[in-house]
Amino acid sequence: IGKKFEWFDDSPDPIKEAVTNMCYQMGVSGFSKFKKTIYSLETEQYEEASTECLDSLWAKQTPNRAKEVSEAISSAVAD
């Protein structure tokens, strides 16, 4: 993941876990389609990223996992 997204390796652990979770489910190419989420993660706008990942077909199809990932991203704000 770090090879595709330069910001990944320097991200807080909750972000790494959330992105890894999404990539595990959808693959890196699937996660790559989350342009607004990725931009928000890259620019450390974690609340925005948390909201953006829920605004997707993925979140509608797997609501429990999406909520878990969103909460993990939000937890990085508190760190």
What does this protein structure show overall?
The chain is mainly alpha-helical and 79 residues long. It has five helices and no strands. The protein has helices at residues 13-31, 35-42, 46-54, 57-61, 63-78. Helix 3 (46-54) packs antiparallel against helix 5 (63-78). The longest helix has 19 residues, at 13-31. It is globular and about 30 Å long. The model has no long low-confidence stretch (mean pLDDT 94).
SSE sequence, one letter per element? HHHHH
Number of helices: 5
- Structural class designation: mainly alpha
Largest sheet: none
Radius of gyration: 11 Å
Query: What portion of the residues fall into strands of 2 or more residues?
Result: under 5%
Average pLDDT taken over every residue: 94
**How would you describe the shape?**
globular
Task: Please bin the fraction of helical residues.
Answer: over 70%
List low-pLDDT spans.
Answer: none
Number of DSSP strand runs:
0
First-to-last CA distance: 22 Å
